[in-house]
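Task: sequence in, structure out. Protein: Membrane protein.
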Amino acid sequence: MADNAMHGAARAATGSRPFELAARSGYAISGVLHLVIAYIIVHLVFGLAGNADQSGAMATLAAQPGGAVALWLAAGGLVALALWRVAEAILGSHPTEPGREHDGASDAFDRIKSAALAVLYVGIALAAARFASGGGRSSREQNTGMTARLLQTGWGKGILLIAGVVIICIGGYHVYKGLSTKFEEDLTVTGGGPLITPLGIAGYTAKGVVLGGAGVLLMIATVTADPAKGAGLDAAVKSLGQAPFGKALLIAAAAGFAAYGAYCFVMSRFARM
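Result:
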């Protein structure tokens, strides 16, 4: 009975056009955040300070006129997208597409992915709300502190190593999805087109490489007991700047994140829901 009620509530919610539009706005918000991250990376090229991650993007937005209001609206859109992912975890992916069958290992993977994305979007929404209210904290500081605490115990080191592997796998999946153009399956338009396909390839590939780098750095932080290397996305981006041809790599990363941000706007319009 409870299961039927849950399915009924999820189906009724996804049948609401206003709810769908609110969820789609979450993609646009993600696009803005990625464009701001690209802007911060460009700053790093010129030796300026900045945190190249979502907390840095939110801090940048919060410092603008009307930034707090924008971040509250962003939090609302991200919560709507998280709730849509919850509905997908219950009903299966793309619940607005009638007659679609949901079974097998692929469906199970999609439901797990939707649940994980729901948690991720809630976390970003909470961070946006904290920055809107003036209480936001740098992700770099939080990640470094958490890594330092986990390094103090054997089981904590195990968790960090597992997390590193998971992050590397997520990054690898992004690269695969970009290079194989598998992201086109998420869109209502067929064939991508001369603009959408290059944006998706560049965006997914660049984000995947940086995510993979963050996972590798987390594993290095665990092995070397250096929590500063486990600082997440920002540490991965800045490690590119320290490599040979670092400025060129940072420019490429900025272009990739900008492409992913632009692709998020494509998703806000053409994503299969």
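Residues 20 and 165 are 34 Å apart (CA to CA).
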